[in-house]
């Protein structure tokens, strides 16, 4: 590491992180997270060092990564538009395909319009920063995604946290807030490490009573909840609506990018004020083509959503029956909670030896003592895959005495 004077405060931090990595990775088999698996596209399998594994921790909820129609659409977009865009959206970067994708997203969600960002992270940061600033107050669920937290911090608004999925606590926070500015409540529709769903009707009621805007991040809700995978509003039978809906094109949709749904007037406002939209390159054509085709397929093939919902419920009951703590899970995201960070490493390693990948999530990403393998069941997993995966996790956990039996 550079030991010049200018680096004096950074070098010790870099060394500390590298020391911690060496501590955790003293055994090559423990290198679980930053491993470059080669996917066997179109299947839930991956390859590493000549071996084939069943991947049970991926985000491809509707199983469309590698679908021939999506591959074809990405290739056609490259043939027509090239591999890059000549600038940011406001300066030569917009191609007709961006607008087609925005139209398709709006139609899919039954909204007036949509705006596409270069990532879900950028969609959150850009939207929040355009909505609020000094003099306003943001209310975040304690488990909200980092991109929401970063957006809130960058915005300059006052930041308040409320207890996870607790509308009563939000109510008391709102009651105590300064009402002179905008009040903005932001929640994840589905929480990525726990797989539980935000109580939208109750949150809506509390927000309405206090005159607060309600924004939802649908990153893990698209393709997983609602009868046809349209997310949290569909999950609650369209009883209530969120004011602002943000999502990503990198999970159920096997691409990159983020989106926001809203009225035309609001989108025009965002196009001029959302800094990641204004100052970061337009989404590349291959990503746009893949996303557009995926949304179209999802609209025609709701069975993908039903399959993942049925199989995740079945997986959850098999592992619960075997004695696993699956925490708050109600969706395709099913954590297998095993206590200490060390337990999670050992469990991931033993599962991998049994041919199944379950990626460990530890502190600080989750509370101390609640480390887990974060499992996600997708439409790419057949019933046999789910059974095989469950059996491998159960056997590995029994060997390590993480569960009884
Ligand atoms: N929101 C949530 C809830 C997420 O889980 C993620 C990605 N992990 C994002 C936003 C960011 O999405 P992207 O990867 O497209 O930047």
From TrEMBL:
Annotated catalysed reactions: 6-carboxyhexanoyl-[ACP] + L-alanine + H(+) = (8S)-8-amino-7-oxononanoate + holo-[ACP] + CO2
A GO molecular function held by the record: 8-amino-7-oxononanoate synthase activity
E.C. designation(s): 2.3.1.47
A Pfam match: Aminotran_1_2
SUPFAM superfamilies: PLP-dependent transferases
UniProt xrefs under InterPro entries: Aminotransferase_I/II_large, AON_synthase_class-II, PyrdxlP-dep_Trfase, PyrdxlP-dep_Trfase_major, PyrdxlP-dep_Trfase_small
Superkingdom: Bacteria
Top enzyme category: transferase
PANTHER family: CLASS II AMINOTRANSFERASE/8-AMINO-7-OXONONANOATE SYNTHASE, LD36009P
Protein name in UniProt: 8-amino-7-oxononanoate synthase
Organism whose genome encodes this protein: Actinokineospora spheciospongiae
Organism phylogeny: Bacteria, Bacillati, Actinomycetota, Actinomycetes, Pseudonocardiales
């Amino acid at each position: 590491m550079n030991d010049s004077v200018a680096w004096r405060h950074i070098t010790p931090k870099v060394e500390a992180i590298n020391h911690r990595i060496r501590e955790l990775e003293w055994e090559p088999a423990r290198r679980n997270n930053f491993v470059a698996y080669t996917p066997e596209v179109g299947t839930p399998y991956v390859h590493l060092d000549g071996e084939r594994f069943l991947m049970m921790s991926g985000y491809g909820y509707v199983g469309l990564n590698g679908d021939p129609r999506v591959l074809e659409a990405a290739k056609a977009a490259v043939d027509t538009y090239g591999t890059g865009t000549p600038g940011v959206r406001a300066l030569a970067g917009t191609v007709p395909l961006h607008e087609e994708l925005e139209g398709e997203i709006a139609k899919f969600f039954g909204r007036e319009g949509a705006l596409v960002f270069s990532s879900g992270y950028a969609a959150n940061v850009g939207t929040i920063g355009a909505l609020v600033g000094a003099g306003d107050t943001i209310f975040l669920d304690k488990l909200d995604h980092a991109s929401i937290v970063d957006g809130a911090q960058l915005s300059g608004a006052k930041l308040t946290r409320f207890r996870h999925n607790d509308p009563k606590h939000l109510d008391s926070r709102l009651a105590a807030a300064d009402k002179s500015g905008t009040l903005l409540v932001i929640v994840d529709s589905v929480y990525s490490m726990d797989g539980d769903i935000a109580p939208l009707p109750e949150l809506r009621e509390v927000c309405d009573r206090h005159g607060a805007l309600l924004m939802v991040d649908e990153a893990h809700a698209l393709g997983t909840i609602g009868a046809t995978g349209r997310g949290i509003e569909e999950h609650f039978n369209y009883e209530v609506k969120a004011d602002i809906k943000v999502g990503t094109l990198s999970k159920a949709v096997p691409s990159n990018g983020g989106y926001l749904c809203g009225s035309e007037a609001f989108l025009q406002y965002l196009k001029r004020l959302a800094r990641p939209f204004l100052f970061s390159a337009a989404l590349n054509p291959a990503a746009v083509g893949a996303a557009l085709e995926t949304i179209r397929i999802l609209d025609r093939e709701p069975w993908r959503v039903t399959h993942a919902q049925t199989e995740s419920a079945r997986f959850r009951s098999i592992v619960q029956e075997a004695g696993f703590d699956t925490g708050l899970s109600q969706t395709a995201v099913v954590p297998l909670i095993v206590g200490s960070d060390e337990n999670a490493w050992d469990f991931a390693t033993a599962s991998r030896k049994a041919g199944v990948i379950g990626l460990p999530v530890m502190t600080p990403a989750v509370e101390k003592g609640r480390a887990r393998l974060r499992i996600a069941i997708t439409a790419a997993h057949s019933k046999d895959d789910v059974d095989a995966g469950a059996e491998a996790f159960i056997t590995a956990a029994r060997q390590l005495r993480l569960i009884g039996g």
